[in-house]
TrEMBL record:
Presence of the UniProt keyword Cytoplasm in the record: no
Keyword flag Transcription: no
Segments for region (Disordered): 15-35
GO MF terms, alphabetically ordered: flavin adenine dinucleotide binding; oxidoreductase activity, acting on CH-OH group of donors
Listed name of the protein: GMC oxidoreductase
One Pfam family linked to the record: GMC_oxred_N
Domain of life: Eukaryota
Family designation: Belongs to the GMC oxidoreductase family.
Lineage of source species: Eukaryota, Fungi, Dikarya, Ascomycota, Pezizomycotina
Keywords in alphabetical order: FAD, Flavoprotein, Oxidoreductase
Domain Glucose-methanol-choline oxidoreductase N-terminal span(s) in chain numbering: 154-168
Cofactor(s) needed: FAD
UniProt xrefs under InterPro entries: FAD/NAD-bd_sf, GMC_OxRdtase, GMC_OxRdtase_N
Length: 395
């Protein structure tokens, strides 16, 4: 989907200020008792304040991103330790504190090539007895288990490993020469991903953005490194996606909007591409009704929006391209897509599948007509909103 032409963001233009004053973080977020550290950018952040006040002026009050309630703009929480000024993630939050345990072994640079199953002589259910692994040096071995194998490899590699191990659609497995342990055509199907595109707007020359840093201009990079080394601030201390919003689509809450949605849902249900092997009629109907409720209810968030003070290459052949000048960008994402895709192996060689060369991924983006309609309306809605937003009162 093409990006709208760049527009001057006159309403949201703010007076410039030092970079370090736009990236400070609160001392931390105290909700919950888990080890993962979460911090929030200060509400005084120039562009964050402009984003929130602009949306509030349009009738979307601010919400806490940790309240559990969707709707309205907020400052994006980030998994950054407010004391160390470093990323907080699964390794240092969960793994490091338990590395000393005698019953824990972590093997890095190792690839699991398949799950080893033992099938009872009398037929019945196959039982996982271990995993086959290959080290970086190319040495393979089987690791047995006393209790169970937990497969947690993500939306792509989980079905990949199941199919390599003989669990999946029998037709696919037999075509690739893999012995069928269990015929399950649902493996690798119903892949859901959130399609997104966005809008990039030109900003005035007298406002601060981080375009120069994203373009890797030497002076901007040096300043960012100095800021981070001095007091843990600057663009190296954050994701730079500083604000978000979960918003409804007002133009679908009318009687006419409901008719449009019902028509698109019907066309999607009648589409010949719907495969009985990948989903049941009952599930499809329940899912469509859920999405219909979301997009037609004024208090529900049909779309997710992420704001950042820099150019974003949503369109064009080169994803690394960064335009000259100053910009702000808004990513526009479907919160509840109906479109479904799949991820299947195309080779029985674990080395190829492990490198994603032997995996066939079809995300199925925008294959359901309602997804295309909702995303297009989100783009138009956000473009109109930005262009008429009221200026922030901050400095």
């Amino acid at each position: 989907m093409s990006v709208m032409p760049p527009l001057p963001v006159r309403a949201w233009a703010m007076r410039d200020g030092p970079m370090r004053h736009t990236r400070r973080h609160h001392s931390g977020v105290t909700e919950g008792e888990g080890p993962l550290q979460v911090s929030l950018a200060e509400p005084e952040s120039v562009w964050g304040k402009a984003w929130i006040e602009g949306l509030e002026s349009e009738g979307f009050p601010r919400t806490s991103p940790l309240s559990g309630k969707l709707g309205g703009p907020n400052i994006a929480p980030e998994t950054i330790d407010p004391q160390m000024k470093q990323r907080s993630y699964v390794a240092n939050a969960y793994l490091d504190p338990i590395r000393h345990r005698q019953n824990l072994t972590v093997q890095t640079e190792t690839t699991v090539t398949r799950v080893v199953f033992e099938k009872p002589q009398s037929g019945g259910v196959a039982i996982a007895k271990g995993v086959r692994i290959t080290s970086k040096a190319g040495v393979s071995e089987t690791i047995g288990v006393r209790k169970e194998v937990i497969l947690s490899a993500g939306a792509i590699s989980s079905p990949r490993l199941l199919e390599l191990s003989g669990i999946g659609g029998a037709e696919l497995l037999q075509r690739l020469g893999i012995g069928v342990v269990m015929d399950n055509p649902h493996v690798g199907e119903n892949l859901q991903n959130h399609a997104f595109t966005g809008l990039t707007f030109e900003a005035r020359d007298d406002v601060h953005t981080i375009d120069a840093f994203f373009r890797q201009e030497p002076e901007a990079v040096a300043a960012a490194m100095q800021d981070y080394a001095t007091d843990g601030t600057g663009p190296l201390s954050t994701s730079n996606m500083i604000a978000m919003a979960q918003l409804p689509l007002p133009d679908l809450h009318t009687e006419e909007g409901h008719k449009v949605i019902d028509s698109l849902l019907q066309q999607g249900s009648d589409a010949p591409s719907r495969s009985p092997a990948t989903t049941t009629a009952a599930f499809a109907a329940a899912h469509e009704e859920f999405v219909r409720t979301i997009v037609t209810t004024p208090s529900e968030a049909a779309g997710n929006y992420v704001f950042g003070p820099a150019y974003a290459p949503f369109d064009g052949p080169d994803p690394n391209y960064r335009a000259p000048g100053k910009h702000v960008a808004v990513a526009v994402e479907l919160s509840h897509p109906l479109s479904r895709g799949s991820a299947h192996i195309s080779s029985a060689d674990p080395a190829e599948a492990g490198a994603n060369e032997g995996v066939r991924i079809d995300c199925g983006y925008l294959t359901h007509l309602l997804d295309l309609e909702v995303l297009a309306r989100q783009l138009r809605f956000m473009e109109d909103l930005v262009c008429r937003a009221q200026p922030s009162r901050g400095s």
